[in-house]
Amino acid sequence: MTQRLGIIGYPIGHSISPIFQQAGLDHLGIDATYEKWEVTPDKVGEFVASLRSPGTLGINITVPHKRAVIPFLDEVDEWATTAGAVNTIVNRDGRLTGHNTDGPGFLRALLVETGYSPEGTRALILGAGGAARGILLALVRGGVESLVIANRTLERAQTLAQLAQDNGVAAEAISLSQDDALTQAAANADLIVNCTTMGMSHGPDEHGSPLSAAQIPATAIVNDVVYNPMQTPLLREAATAGATGLGGLHMLVYQGVLSFQMWTGQDAPVAVMLEAATKEMASRGT
Ligand SMILES: NC(=O)c1ccc[n+]([C@@H]2O[C@H](COP(=O)([O-])OP(=O)(O)OC[C@H]3O[C@@H](n4cnc5c(N)ncnc54)[C@H](OP(=O)(O)O)[C@@H]3O)[C@@H](O)[C@H]2O)c1
């Protein structure tokens, strides 16, 4: 029987997960299809209940349902519980478990692509939304030494700084508009991660970069989690500064790789999946 996999969100049209997940399944000869389903917020419970059927391996969840699915699951693992968000559901004999591979996928992408590991490093997180929260937890668990969180809305940065402090990591919150503090934080950072929507196609500031080349040290690793476009304004500034840059497509694919392994029990063909994702983005003109 062909097994069922997929992703839910609202809207979902933009998702490229079906492209690279299907490429991985086909490469390994796994008899499964990965679809995308647009599920309105009022239908989330009903949809999750349908996943208990024997033909379903599991699903990914994207915005805005990552929190909403939680009450409908039998178990949520510790990472997803702390993150307050589930991006992967696994169905085992009608029992549904919730997981979150966003943070681990972010760390895996950085390690494989740049050799970066958080232990004893200083990081600057730009933004304080859902992506920033998952990434902060990943950095804290990875042993980061200190964090600065810079956000347009200072209060949201303060909430995340408190979360880091509660987990024993020195953390400071600043406003994105505090130029001197931002410049200083960037100068001290081993890792700079953009988790704002600045630079995102069709976003509120699609040509904007949160930092200029002059603010980026050549020794830093700059990870923009924005993946559309693949080459963001921040990554261009990082290249001008001589820093190492990594785009968000890697995090996207690696979180999917970790989900793939949970559903199938097999090692995902990472190179095949990355190539499929990159080709798809290129074909969309990004
Ligand atoms: N690569 C991946 O796998 C991956 C995974 C998740 C997300 N992402 C990307 O990460 C980005 C953030 O996603 P999210 O889910 O965290 O979104 P979110 O929860 O809505 O957070 C948006 C963040 O962007 C900031 N922001 C919005 N407009 C801004 C502007 N004009 N100037 C400066 N800051 C602005 C917000 O600041 P305020 O708090 O002041 O509103 C907030 O910090 C998106 O581009 C998303 O596609 C990528």
Keywords:
globular, six-stranded mixed sheet, Rossmann fold, 2 domains, alpha/beta, 21% strand, 12 strands, 286 residues, single chain, binds NADP nicotinamide-adenine-dinucleotide phosphate, six-stranded parallel sheet
Find the CATH superfamily of the largest domain: NAD(P)-binding Rossmann-like Domain
Number of strands: 12
Percent of sequence in beta strands: 15-25%
Bound chemical compounds: NADP nicotinamide-adenine-dinucleotide phosphate
> Helical element count?
10
SSE sequence, one letter per element: EHEHEEHEEHEHEHEHEEHEHH
Low-pLDDT segments, ≥5 res: none
Any overview of this molecule?
With 286 residues, this protein is α/β, with parallel strands linked by helices. It folds into two domains: 3-100 and 251-283, Rossmann fold (3-Layer(aba) Sandwich); 103-246, Rossmann fold, CATH 3.40.50. The chain contains ten helices and twelve strands. It has helices at 17-27, 44-50, 78-83, 102-114, 130-141, 154-166, 179-188, 233-241, 248-264, 270-283; strands spanning 3-9, 32-38, 56-61, 75-76, 88-92, 95-99, 122-126, 146-151, 170-175, 191-194, 221-224, 244-246. The chain has a six-stranded mixed beta sheet. The chain has a six-stranded parallel beta sheet with strand order 9-8-7-10-11-12, sandwiched between helices. Strand 7 (122-126), helix 5 and strand 8 form a beta-alpha-beta unit. Helix 1 packs antiparallel against helix 10 (270-283) and helix 4 crosses helix 9. The longest helix is centred in the last third of the chain and has 17 residues, at 248-264. It is globular. The model has no long low-confidence stretch (mean pLDDT 97). NADP nicotinamide-adenine-dinucleotide phosphate binds at residues 63, 102, 127-132, 151-153, 156, 176, 195-198, 200, 204-205, 225-227, 248, 251-252, 255.
